[in-house]
Design a protein that fits this description.
The protein is built from 19 helices and no strands. The protein is mainly alpha-helical. It has 2 domains: about 5-190 and about 360-370, no CATH class; about 260-340, no CATH class.
Length: about 375
């Protein structure tokens, strides 16, 4: 297979899967979910909030005038970081009015979900000097099921994961400034990008300078990481100051911090964002991700990719939210990457993947039908 045919097979195949998934939203073929429609698709959480930001840029007057139906005060919207709305607004403007704001949001998600796959393949190439098998790439696109959902609605995850993978790809290629720039952009998409800077810093301290703080601080790359982290934080909050008049607007946006002490409060049904004792899937998810992280220890323990995954996974044990699967998504591409050898191509694998894909489609249709405003 030529390189050109490989990319056509991968990107074209995933694009066709996405189109097949969207059929019930635009036709009468709706199976068990008669409510499925384009409106339900773009109104899935937190799509309308990102559209409101793209439309108003946090203006209290415009939010009250145009988005009152969301029943949220203007102070809530800085919880939704500005980079995804920027691309949605940009696409709408470039279309010269031919694309509506909701359609721009869905298209942007479509584009970045394909970019996510492309960057993951590039990082795989950089690490292993070969292209991954298409079966493995399909696992990246479909696992876990929550990944397929967020990559087909208006959400920041695909953009965030693409930028995170790009940051580590450039770091792997020793293009450190580009790595930091993409880490900053990731931070302006979602706050967990903090772990990218932390992973780079830990790698310099542990792998490069053998726990010597003095030698680490003498390394110019350390100061690049520090300055990059400060730029990300100050830049984001300065933008909020310019648009809302409040430098600390994000920290006043309401209940958006879901890290709690003591540990494992995700199993406390009295937590506001838990509210259930049907939590077996969380046991399986955290156990599986821990297993995959530990299995990759021997080969990748000196890698910033492993350090990022470890820091991120550790933080998940303090998250008190029923949708912890979504919180965990950013480490999944890295866990698959570091354990790629476990997935072998073959007839049994392909049959299993077809069955899994069908199950993911049904789960996703059901989820989208019930998770909208």
């Amino acid at each position: 297979m030529t390189i050109k045919n490989y990319w056509l097979k991968i990107i074209g195949g995933i694009a066709l899967l996405k189109i097949a998934f969207l059929i019930p939203f635009f036709t009468s073929f709706k199976l068990y979910w008669p409510s499925l429609s384009f409106e339900v698709l773009w109104k899935n959480f937190d799509g309308p909030y990102f559209l409101a930001v793209a439309d108003t840029w946090y203006s209290p007057e415009r939010i009250a005038d145009l988005w009152a139906w969301l029943d949220r005060s203007a102070a809530y919207f800085p919880a939704h970081f500005p980079l995804l709305p920027f691309f949605i607004d940009l696409l709408k403007q470039l279309s010269l009015g031919l694309v509506s704001l909701p359609a721009a949001g869905i298209l942007v998600g479509f584009i970045f979900s394909l970019l996510l796959v492309w960057v993951w393949i590039r990082l795989y190439q950089a690490l292993f000097n070969r292209l991954p098998h298409p079966v493995l790439v399909l696992v990246v696109a479909l696992f876990p099921p929550r990944m397929w959902v967020v990559n087909n609605i208006i959400s920041p995850e695909a953009l965030f994961m693409s930028l995170t993978l790009l940051a580590f790809l450039f770091w792997q290629k020793q293009r450190y400034l580009l790595a930091i720039i993409h880490a900053i952009l990731a931070f302006w998409t979602k706050s967990p990008a903090f772990f990218i800077f932390a992973a780079f810093g830990l790698w310099l301290w542990i792998a490069e300078h053998k726990l010597s703080i003095i030698q680490t601080l003498k390394d110019r790359r350390s100061w690049l990481v520090i300055i990059g982290g400060l730029t990300a934080f100050v830049g984001l909050n300065w933008f909020y100051y310019l648009t809302t008049g409040d430098f600390w607007a994000y920290f006043k946006s309401g209940d958006n911090m879901h890290l709690f002490w003591p540990i494992l409060q995700v199993f406390n049904p009295n937590q506001v964002w838990v509210g259930s004792f049907w939590l077996e899937d969380i046991v399986l998810l955290l156990s599986l991700y821990t297993l995959l992280l530990l299995k990759s220890w021997q080969r990748f323990k000196q890698s910033p990719i492993w350090m990022f995954s470890a820091l991120f996974l550790f933080s998940l044990f303090f998250v008190a939210h029923r949708d912890i699967s979504r919180y965990a998504l950013p480490i999944v591409p890295f866990l698959i990457l570091m354990n790629a050898g476990m997935i072998k191509d073959g007839l049994k694998t392909r049959i299993s993947l077809v069955v899994y894909a069908i199950l993911v489609f049904f789960y996703s249709w059901s989820f989208v039908a019930g998770n909208h405003i």
